[in-house]
Write a structure and sequence with these properties.
- By secondary structure, the chain is α+β, with helices and mostly antiparallel strands.
- It has one domain.
- The chain is 28% helix and 11% strand.
- It has a two-stranded antiparallel sheet with strand order 1-2.
């Protein structure tokens, strides 16, 4: 799961080993989860973000 940080950065909460493996394999894309409310923040920092599904409570 990714979450916004007060510094304006995105932090990885758990499951960071997937990112490490993706880097080693030179993956072009890595699926991530985030709360719907953080979508604008994440989109602003990841311009190539592709949203596959959304769910709002």
């Amino acid at each position: 799961m990714v979450q916004p940080h007060s510094t304006g950065e995105i932090i990885i909460v758990g499951d960071s080993h997937r990112l490490a493996v993706a880097r080693v394999k030179r993956a072009a894309a890595v699926p991530v989860l985030f709360e719907h409310e953080h979508l604008p923040f994440v989109q602003a920092r990841l311009p190539r973000l592709v949203v596959l599904a959304t769910h709002s409570a």
